[in-house]
Specification:
Helix content of chain B: 40-55%
Number of domains of chain B: 2
CATH architecture of the largest domain in chain B: Orthogonal Bundle
Number of helices of chain B: 6
Radius of gyration of chain B: 26 Å
Order of helices and strands of chain B: HHHHHH
Number of helices of chain C: 19
Strand content of chain B: under 5%
CATH topology of the largest domain in chain B: Helicase, Ruva Protein, domain 3
Chains: A alpha/beta (183), B mainly alpha (151), C alpha+beta (662)
Radius of gyration of chain C: 27 Å
Structural class of chain B: mainly alpha
Distance between the termini of chain C: 48 Å
Number of strands of chain C: 10
Number of strands of chain B: 0
Oligomer: heterotrimer
Strand content of chain C: 5-15%
């Protein structure tokens, strides 16, 4: 059976055509981080929670604390070295009036308390999540992670990794400003 | 220098933020449910869930702390009466489809699931056409010789 | 000084490779015999200087010269010498150098052992081989030099992943690269054939032994990797569908297809264009694998230190090599003659079916590996594709392939009848059904899937031996004559039988170990025991100790069946201070019927130890099967016809597109 010419040409060209598509995908893929896990909770209300205190005598941190204002929730731990890198940035933000709450994740309260005492406490409220249940409910996979919560208590953004000045300036600050106005 | 095994392992745990990818099959006896049927279901479900801080492991296989947390969560849901699918969904709601080792069948994975069949049809079509597009001839003494010799 | 000499050798090799390309292409075009000979000498020269560079790198590791960056990053003085040396290829730069070395080895081998090839053709093959070398030597020299210096010089190295201090794993990369890079020769042959526009079987006749050699090495490499994972990682797995594992499986699958379709081209002058395409694609899969491991584009336990800049360079090489090859194919393949015709029920037909299934399987693995990336790029979603996907796609596609493996060799070339086939298959069918009934009965009808797969394994083993039975005309002639016929059989036949037999063993091992496996865990104090898989497992004691560069705790575990003799197993946990990490050394008791696998977990606060046990029936046949497959390949290399197949008549009215010296 002799093949018609167009079919022959198609069969000869098809492999290189498929390869071109693949090469483009691979080139784009190089700029992509395969391990970065985007949040599926964007747009959803934050889960109900009530965390105990980190320091003795503190009030802890619960869901009611985040309603009514645009806030940041920062997940940290005394064992987390990247959190220490992020910490000065958080202190700066707190000093300039940005409301930040803290979750001491997978940490004994005493260790978290010691860490805050040593390096400073940028948080309005801070709660301890030693068993990690709130972390699971928020889809946390490591520290530091920071959530942007709007006035109605919905999660609007998740930052994986430390907040750098650039990330603050280009992503988080504008978002918080928008949410402040838009409601 | 003599170190007690206990101190040794305490030292190990201190270094961990992300998973140690290589360790023994990870379910600890203290996690296991009392009811063997429920425990078996929990292990089966765990085998289908991905450890999100590891490289390509299920939470059943990983000794990462987060994997342990997820295993406990799965057991909690199953003990609370969730079906296998509900337990999986509970985790998908929080971590996304990424956590499923068996990709869901949805609009953006149709190509993934039907792909093998499509490839089979294209390969079959292409090769059969290539095979049949030869020149016609009568008789083939070389083929006969080959068959006599039979390889 | 040593490092600088090494760098100089690499630059020299790069220049020589350029000469090889130029001399080969121009010499062939002009028919200039001297220039073509220069190409061969250049191939030798490239081997010499890359070999020298590699030897120097080994020396740097052996003496722990920490002024060289890769040595400082990957070695330490307290490591045993053997592992210092194997560390040379356990990192990105060193392994790239090994890659290029093997490329040079194959190039020189084709140059010097391929004397019987037409000179112009050989020169072109060497030119293409040299071109690949140029690309990768450039990559090494400009982005990944193993000889880069480190200043200030550290007093001690940063150690090594303790998992890699293992003999099995030391051998795994070299063998794997022999396979990956070995297929570069198939690529070079295919491209040379396209350049010349040859419509005869010359290229495949000379390429076949190299294809088989590469296939053998890749088979051993993949098998060894799986075996290493099994005894080293501590939870009894042997294949994880990890992207880099898949990246080694895909060239193997296409390489197997290539081995079979090359046979059709050589014997029957059919599937010419397809086989050339396959030759290009197989090596492209190797390049893709190289890309995946080193670019960080997919998460994998195997990934070397990730560097998108290096990834871009390799992608560029991939685009040039594969893109260039496929473009050349698109332009030139139509001028290649179509081959002879055959009926679908024939040996050729079965080999076409083999290729259809293998290509589909490869496409499926490819889809599963790269789909998450595609989704990530195109949508907001992020998915995973793990073992459950492959169980539902790969396995059902493998089944018809395994069936065809027995049917194919029993078919006649060109045309055969269905009835004749059924008669010949009789004994194999009988054995398969018998196995099905036996296993079904033994498991009381509860493990039908296992029975089916074990029947498949029996089908493969019986079917392979059936080939020998038929050729030896057992039953038709006297036993003495049968024996004589058997010994007169060409080595290639024995090779085929062994290779297919090996697959049968592999299937048996996979079926047993996957379907009948059991696992359990218990917390045991010294002297305590737990029941498992018909045995009593008792933890005798756990004692600490230390070796050259690690500390360990070793457990002694006794497993006893009923009142029988206990088996002693000694699982360990090892702690490597320089890496602050530990490994699990499982203890495995291997028997032909199954493995008992014990691993030591953590110690609880009350002093009891977590002990994990696994039973893997028939597991050893997985790796023995792989070994027998490779052995089959090796045996067929002993057949003179593999190396110097007789010229076949092409059909008279097919013309070569252009004369060889155009």
């Amino acid at each position: 059976m002799k093949l018609p010419r167009p079919a022959l040409i198609a069969a000869a060209v098809a492999p290189v055509a498929v390869f071109v598509v693949l090469a483009i995908a691979l080139a784009l893929g190089l700029r992509n981080d395969p391990a970065a896990l985007p949040s599926v909770l964007i747009g959803k209300p934050a889960p109900a929670f009530a965390l105990g205190p980190v320091r003795e005598g503190d009030v802890g941190f619960s869901r009611a604390d985040i309603e009514g204002r645009v806030v940041l929730i920062n997940v940290f731990g005394s064992w987390c070295s990247a959190c220490r890198l992020e910490h000065p940035m958080l202190m700066e933000l707190a000093a300039s009036g940005v409301p930040i709450h803290g979750i001491d994740w997978k940490d004994a309260p005493a260790d978290g308390a010691a860490w805050l005492k040593k390096y400073g406490d940028p948080y309005v409220r801070v709660g301890n999540d030693e068993i990690g249940r709130l972390g699971l409910d928020l889809g946390v996979s490591g520290a530091p992670e920071t959530f942007v919560i709007d006035k109605t208590g919905r999660i609007r953004h998740k930052q994986v990794g430390p907040i750098t000045p650039e990330i603050w300036r280009d992503e988080i600050a504008p978002l918080m400003a928008r949410l402040e106005v838009g409601g | 220098m003599n170190r007690s095994p206990g101190a040794l392992f305490a030292a190990l745990l201190a270094g961990l933020m992300l998973a140690l990818p290589f360790a023994a099959l990870a379910v600890e006896p203290d996690e296991m449910l009392a009811d063997p049927a429920l425990e078996a279901r929990a292990q089966a479900v765990s085998k289908e869930l991905r450890c999100v801080v590891c490289q390509n492991q299920s939470i059943d296989d990983s000794s990462a702390p987060l994997a342990r947390d997820m295993r406990l969560l799965v057991r909690e849901r199953i003990a609370a009466g969730d079906s296998d699918a509900q337990a999986r969904t509970y985790l998908v709601e929080r971590y996304g489809n990424f956590v499923l080792l068996k990709p869901p069948f949805q609009a953006n994975t149709i190509l993934l699931w039907l792909g093998p069949l499509l490839i089979l049809l294209v390969a079959a079509g292409g090769l059969l056409v290539a095979a049949r597009s030869g020149a016609v001839e009568d008789g083939d003494p070389e083929a006969d010789a080959d068959n006599m010799e039979s390889l | 000084m040593t490092a600088e000499i090494g760098r100089f050798c690499l630059i020299l090799a790069f220049i020589i490779a350029l000469v090889q390309v130029f001399a080969g292409l121009v010499g062939a075009r002009r028919g200039d015999a001297r220039l073509m000979a220069v190409a061969t000498s250049a191939a030798g020269g490239q081997l010499l200087f890359v070999g020298l560079a590699f030897a120097l790198l080994i020396r740097l590791f052996a003496v722990s010269d920490f002024s060289v960056m890769v040595v400082a990053a990957n070695s330490a003085t307290i490591k045993p010498l053997f592992y210092k040396i194997t560390a040379a290829w356990g990192n990105h730069e060193g392994s790239m150098l090994l890659w290029v070395l093997i490329l040079a080895v194959f190039g020189a081998a084709v140059g010097y052992l391929g004397r019987t090839m037409p000179a112009a053709f050989r020169a072109r093959v060497l030119a293409v081989q040299g071109l690949i070398g140029v690309g990768f030597l450039a990559f090494i020299i400009f982005t990944s030099s193993p000889f880069a210096r480190l200043f200030p010089v550290p007093l001690e190295g940063a150690g090594f992943n303790p998992l890699l201090q293992d003999p099995g794993l030391a051998a795994h990369p070299p063998l794997l690269y022999l396979g990956y890079v070995g297929f570069s020769t198939a690529f070079s042959f295919a491209i040379a054939a396209l350049i010349e526009g040859r419509s005869d079987t010359v290229w495949v006749r000379y390429a076949r032994p190299w294809i088989i050699i590469a296939w053998i090495c890749l088979t051993i490499g993949v098998t060894l990797g799986s075996l290493w994972a099994y005894y080293e990682l501590g939870w009894g797995g042997w294949w994880f569908w990890d992207p880099v594992e898949n990246a080694s499986l895909m060239p193997w699958l296409l390489g197997t297809a290539l081995v079979h379709s090359a046979l059709v081209v050589e014997r029957r002058f059919a599937l010419v264009r397809w086989t050339i395409l396959l030759g290009i694609l197989t090596f492209s899969m190797s390049l893709l694998g190289t890309f995946v491991v080193r670019s960080g584009i997919l998460t994998s336990v195997h990934a070397f230190a990730v560097d998108p800049a290096r990834g871009s360079f390799i992608l560029a090489l991939l685009v040039l090599a594969t893109g260039g090859g496929l473009t050349l194919y698109a332009i030139r393949s139509p001028v290649l003659g179509a081959g002879r015709v055959f009926s679908l029920v024939s040996r050729e037909g079965s080999l076409v079916l083999n290729n259809i299934l293998l290509v589909t399987i490869t496409g499926t693995v490819f889809l599963g590996t790269f789909y998450p990336l595609l989704i990530d790029l195109l949508t907001e979603d992020k998915i995973s594709v793990g073992a459950p996907y492959y169980a539902m796609t790969f396995v059902p596609l493998a089944a018809p392939l395994l069936l065809v493996m027995v049917i194919g060799p029993l078919l006649n070339w060109r045309r055969d009848s269905g009835q004749g086939l059924m008669r010949r298959l009789g004994p194999a069918l009988f054995v398969a059904f018998a196995a099905l009934l036996l296993v079904g009965a033994a498991t009381h009808g509860k493990a039908l899937l296992a029975a089916a797969w074990l029947a498949m394994a029996a089908w493969l083993v019986a079917g392979s031996l059936l080939i020998l039975v038929r050729r030896a005309r057992v039953g038709e002639v006297s036993p003495a004559d049968s024996l004589r016929l058997l010994r007169a059989l060409p080595a290639a036949t024995h090779g085929l039988v062994l290779a297919h037999l090996g697959v049968g063993l592999l299937v048996a091992g996979l079926a047993g170990a996957s379907i009948f496996k059991q696992e359990g865990v218990a917390q045991l104090g010294p002297g305590q025991s737990a029941p498992f898989a018909g045995r009593e497992i008792r933890l005798v004691d756990v004692t600490p100790g230390r070796e050259a560069n690690y500390e360990f705790v070793r457990g002694r575990v006794e497993a006893r069946r009923g009142g029988g003799e206990p088996i002693l197993l000694t699982p360990e946990r090892r702690f490597y201070p320089e890496r602050q990490s530990d490994t699990t050394e499982a203890s495995v008791r291997v028997t032909p019927l199954g493995n008992l696998y014990v691993a030591l977990g953590d110690q609880a606060t009350d002093g009891r130890w977590t002990v994990r046990f696994f039973s893997h029936p028939l597991a050893v046949w997985i790796w023995l099967g792989g070994a027998v497959m490779a052995l089959g390949g090796m045996v067929s290399l002993f057949d003179r016809r593999t190396w110097a197949a007789p010229e076949r008549q092409s059909t008279p009215d097919i013309q070569t597109a252009a004369s060889p010296a155009e």
